[in-house]
Amino acid sequence: MLQKINFPSGTVNFFFDSSFDELWQDYDKSHVVVITNEHISKLYAHLLKGLRVLVLPACESSKDMHTIATLSRQLVDLKATRQTILVGLGGGVITDITGFLASVYLRGVKFGFVPTSLLAMVDAAIGGKNGVNSGMHKNILGTITQPDFILYDTRFSDTLPDDEWSNGFAEIIKYACIFDAELFEELAKHSISYYQDEDDEALNKLIKRCADWKIKTVQEDEKESGIRKLLNFGHTAAHAIENLYEIPHGKAVGIGMVVACMISTDVAGLDKGVVDKLKALLAQYHLPVKMKFNASKAMEILKMDKKRVDDNIDYIVLEKIGKAAVHALPFDVIEKALTAYESNN
Q1: How far is the C-alpha of 212 from the C-alpha of 105, rounded, in Å?
Q2: Domains in the chain: ranges and CATH
Q3: DSSP 8-class letter at 345
Q4: What share of the chain is helix, strand, coil (3-state, %, to 5)?
Q5: What are the CA-CA distances from residue 129 to residues 95, 142, 221 (Å)?
Q6: What does the pLDDT read at residue 204?
Q7: Percent of the chain having pLDDT more than 70?
Q8: Dihedral through CA 231, CA 246, CA 90, CA 85, nearest 10?
Q9: Which among 47, 167, 255, 264 is least surrounded, fewest beta carbons within 10 Å?
């Protein structure tokens, strides 16, 4: 199902509930260079036959400028031109790298994504943000450039490890918290196995529902000056914890959402019962709600967060399930919450 969706900076072709092979009805294979990881390239070698493919290690540490430089040299060796189309086949690391590389190679070439992880399908592939890390600082280098297309083929979810399903549900729970109280209740009635084991309809509907929330938000605020900031719910603390301890993104976001809700009870009047509801839902989807971490070290990284303004950070808080807001919070408020979390775990 093709939907042409307009964003301020361009139109993106969304192929929902589709197949990887359908790409070649619209895109010339001879112009395509696929960027993927070693895990995907082995599992789906049959789909990649006849294509030019660049393969990266399957790890977050690949997401840096060294990788961009290496891939740039490989594209030059392949004689890639401005007619080349880069296709990122993988999870959020691959889509970030591919989008960033395409944005800067020859000052910009076409690119598209075939997300293979649930997290990338519902969040990372959508919205035009493409970034790489530098040291302990996540996505501190990047662009906002829309892909030419995003294609959804849920057969890739058949080979997802259980941990990757949990990671994806962290972002799905995020959408429920900030936009969609009905989705929060729906998730509470089900489990990961429901979406894994039912026919593809339940999973495709869930992916489309979350994608629609992000699409609508980015259409309204592509450059993240307003409502798009809400999508950072749980991510401010998460990015610091994720880089400090090299835990998966979704698990860090789960912990970050708990911290954000703790802050919300003080600064946004959130009912304390919501914190318990969120913890129960996270646990239901196999996401951690407790973790030992060093609050002061997390704060050191957090103080370099992209959302910092002087001695405050634009922090996303919940007023209730389904309604979020941006509060400019001083560092001491955030540090107090991190310390409280640390002492309780």
Answers
A1: 30
A2: 2-159 (3.40.50.1970), 162-344 (1.20.1090.10)
A3: -
A4: 55, 20, 25
A5: 9, 7, 12
A6: 93
A7: 99
A8: 80
A9: 47
- Tell me the pLDDT tens digit for each residue of 255-299: 999 999 999 999 999 999 999 999 999 999 999 988 888 888 888
Contact 248, 214 (CB under 8 A): no
CA dihedral 13, 84, 89, 2 (to 10 degrees): 20
**143: CB partners within 8 A, 6+ apart:** 99, 100, 103, 104, 129, 130, 131
Residue 242 has pLDDT above 90, yes or no: no
Please indicate, yes or no, whether the overall pTM of this predicted structure exceeds 0.90: yes
137-143 long-range contacts (CB < 8 A, ≥24 apart) are 137/243, 137/301, 137/304, 138/239, 138/242, 138/243, 139/96, 139/239, 139/306, 140/304, 140/306, 141/65, 141/100, 142/96, 142/100, 143/99, 143/100, 143/103, 143/104
Give the angle 320-321-325 at the CA atoms, nearest 5°. 55
**Contacts of 198-201 spanning 24+ positions with Cβ under 8 A:** 200/17, 200/154
- E runs forming strands in 226-289: none
Q: In the beta sheet, which residues pair with residue 87?
A: 34, 112
For residues 335 and 208, give the distance between their C-alpha atoms in angstroms, rounded to a whole number: 36
Residue in 10, 306, 20, 257 with CA at minimum distance from that of residue 154:
20
Which tokens is 312 given? Answer: 């405050």
In DSSP notation, 117-176 reads SHHIIIIITSSSEEEEEETTEEEEEEEE---SEEE--GGGGGG--HHHHHHHHHHHHHHH
CA distance 99 to 102: 5
- How far is 211 from 123, CA to CA, in rounded Å? 7
What pLDDT, on a 0 to 100 scale, did the predictor assign at position 199? Answer: 67
Euclidean distance between CA atoms 64 and 132, whole angstroms: 5
**Contact present, 239 and 285 (Cβ < 8 Å):** no
